[in-house]
Amino acid sequence: MDFLDRAVQRTRFAYFSMEIALRAEMHTYSGGLGVLAGDSARSAADLDLPMVFVTLVSRQGYARQEIDNSHAQVSHADPWSPQDFATALPQMVAVSIEGRAVWVRPWLYALECQLGHVIPVLLLDTDLAENAVEDRRITDALYGGDQAYRLKQEIVLGVGGQSVLRALGFRIEKYHLNEGHAALLTLPLLKGTRRPDGVHASDPIDSYDVSAVRKRCVFTTHTPVEAGFDKFDYDLVERVLGDYIERDILAHLAGADQLNMTHLALNLSGYVNGVARRHAETTRKLFPGYTIASITNGVHVHRWTHGAIARLFEQQFSNWAHEPEVLAFADQIGDNALWSAHGDAKHDLLARIAQATGRQLRPDLPLIGYARRMTAYKRPELIFSDMERLREIANAQPFQIVLAGLAHPNDGGGQEAIRALGAHIDALEGTIPAVFMPGYNLDVAAALVAGCDVWLNTPLPPLEASGTSGMKAALNGALNLSVLDGWWIEGCVESVTGWSIPSNGAEASDAGALYDKLRAVVLPLYHGDRGRWIWMMKQAISKIGSSFNSHRMMRRYVTEAYLR
Ligand SMILES: *Cc1c(COP(=O)(O)O)cnc(C)c1O
Description:
The protein has 564 residues and is of the alpha/beta class. Helix content is 41%, strand content 17%.
């Protein structure tokens, strides 16, 4: 445990996230938020940053997806075994929940990067013999259960995580709240500033030093709509959190009617940012008067580049994984070498698809991929809006489609979308080879982003805060075809790095714009001008890979937020 001692001594920044995607076998993530946290941790390790990452152990995972004969998603618990990957630490702490002492134990996961640096990730666990049966389940189901369950999880993460760090001897200067779930970590900090009793303050908030807490907290918001924020009724908060902190203080900082985690984080963080330029603008409109910076997300280049493509990078720039900015020169890679490496990635994906679905897609036809969380604003069905039109396009210029994605077990709309996609796939039988890959996770995502030719995204603007899968695709030379929202507003150079889909938000016209682009621009290029296609692949890799990476993102967090 030498590495932990060193980490305790040197660590200055703590990153808190409800989910962190470390590896496919560890089910501590559900989707983009967790993948971003995982890529942040990997870059922190590569850059040897003095950081610790804190999350929940989520023993039962998020959901394992099965697709039944009627195309419906069947959601299973997705348990995993922390002891196979992490070490239980003896330092336990107690948090008060519903008046009971709930013990929290950290598991230590040593995240080691290619260069040999190691970063500690702490996975918080309440499944301990010391706890009441119901409390042992608090850290089981990621985003599972009811409001009370979620609040308990957020207490364990924020308050428990803070205590665990202290018990281990960490001295943290800055806390990074990755999304509002972690906002309760501000409360122990705030309590630490309480002026001695007896000092008379005319306003109760003046008993605390809010500005001292703000100096120590950095908040990244990921949600562009008010409805997406975690909110808890104060009656529930009082029942679960007890008298941990006065209700009027919470009402002052987190909302008069409900405890709104985004408001709490905003009011107690001295640096707040959105995850893309457009998202920061949207957030400023939601919260007039707050200063909202933007640090556009990035992906971890080594993790998301297919082995065959990585070998090309390696030949040209031996330091690419540490200095992804050198990928700016990836446009110098030879056409044949790149096309052949892409062919290897596509071959691997087609083999995976065949294994999962029994369907054999063709390597010589363009493959359009769409994989993301299945939820209404992402509009997974948009490409199937006009089946006649789609068939007509494919009859003249053939292509194939692969889809994947999980719906939250309680998201009826998302579940319905999956069923509808299955029906559309059936209806295309004989004209457009199309498949749904079950069990979207880190490994499936990696195969998809590398093996597709075109990466499709059709969200309803401005609801896609960032969207990182398109960055992963670009890194592998897959070309984005996407509505201009989130990061793509910054990444898209029309017909150079990919293509935009003009959107006015109405389904029929957005679908029409997608069909027009496919028919008139994307498919003719693939079928008719392979040289220009490969040129675009290189433009995507060099322009997007060199800047939309998590090394650049973490360097910016350090210089603009943590050291501020
Ligand atoms: C990258 C990734 C995401 C996020 O991608 P979006 O473009 O935001 O949908 C979600 N889930 C997995 C498994 C990923 O790898």
